[in-house]
Write a structure and sequence with these properties.
This protein is α/β, with parallel strands linked by helices and 286 residues long. The chain has 11 helices and 7 strands. Strands 2-1-4-5-6-3-7 form a 7-stranded mixed β-sheet. Helix 9 packs across helix 11. It is elongated. The N and C termini lie far apart (83 Å).
Length: 286
């Protein structure tokens, strides 16, 4: 008859085997490592970004109304008050993504470490539910940000975003808000919408599912091409901020010529001009 003492080695081996088979405890995702991250869909972990490429909020000109609305929404969210997901759409180069990063920095400057910014790439949208699962367990509040978001024909990854924004049984975590930029108001090409309407038995229902994605954003902030006055105001602000040694008349004349060669006026064009000008003047933009 086998005694309890004789069975102990066997029980120990069984316990060790079961321990080897059991999954390891989940690793700390590391959300305390920084205030900004890029989501890595392959590893399922956020990558800290210690030095975010951004401009100061005071340097974003020509979009004052959109700036104030987004900043107020971000402040309320950081304080735990109701706030909306935001879609910044419209003209290229008008500071949509710069505004998101600047608003995050401004709010964190007011209340340090209160808010994370986590960028997710467009091609990784399908992994968004995994990111939400990690963030749901965090104490810190987070802006999940996707730059240049849009969906093409036969692309079904928008369903992951749609479920996270408001649908799904769990809904969006209370400590998460979603900001996106896009050149398209409805996040899908106009010709795709028109084609589906023209070939569908019920045109209004044919695009309803995809168009309804943009309805999940409570804030729609439209960015339009800037006037020459706005463009010159941006250039002057940059020149003053960085102390560029050039007279106002020469600055404006060169800025107008620069925009003419580019065939466009925008915040991006203004910044590119300032970089060129600073280089020619032998000054840094530190």
């Amino acid at each position: 008859m086998t005694s309890d003492q004789d069975r102990l080695p066997l029980l120990k081996r069984i316990a060790e085997a079961l321990e080897r088979l059991s999954p390891p405890p989940p690793a700390d995702p590391g959300f305390d490592a920084a205030d900004a991250f890029v989501w890595n869909a392959e590893t399922g972990r956020p990558v800290p970004v210690p030095d975010v490429a951004r401009v100061d909020l005071s340097l974003i000109r020509g979009v004052d109304r959109m700036r104030d609305i987004l900043l107020d929404n971000t402040r309320r969210f950081a304080r735990g008050l109701p706030a909306n997901n935001a879609l910044l759409w419209g003209a290229r180069g008008m500071g949509k993504s710069s505004l998101v990063k600047a608003a995050h920095a401004a709010v964190n400057a007011e209340n340090p470490n209160s808010l994370m910014l986590i960028e997710i790439h467009r091609e990784d949208i399908e992994s968004l539910p995994r990111l939400m699962t990690l963030l749901r367990q965090q104490r810190r509040r987070a802006i999940v940000f996707c730059d240049d978001l849009s969906f093409d024909r036969d692309d079904t990854s928008y369903k992951s975003l749609k479920a996270v924004l408001e649908g799904g049984i769990e809904g969006r975590p209370a400590n998460v808000i979603f900001y996106a930029t896009s050149n398209r108001r409805h996040l899908m090409p106009r010709d795709m919408m028109e084609n589906e309407r023209s070939t569908a038995i019920n045109p209004s229902e044919a695009v309803e599912e995809k168009v309804s994605l943009s309805d999940r954003f409570g804030l729609w902030l439209g960015f339009h091409n800037c006037s020459q006055d706005d463009y010159l105001g941006m250039v002057a602000s940059y020149a003053e901020h960085f102390g560029l040694k050039i007279g106002r008349e020469a600055l404006e004349a060169e800025a107008i010529e620069w925009a003419a060669t580019r065939g466009a006026r925008s915040g991006r064009v203004a910044w590119q001009f300032i970089q060129d000008l600073a280089g020619r003047l032998g000054q840094t933009l530190g």
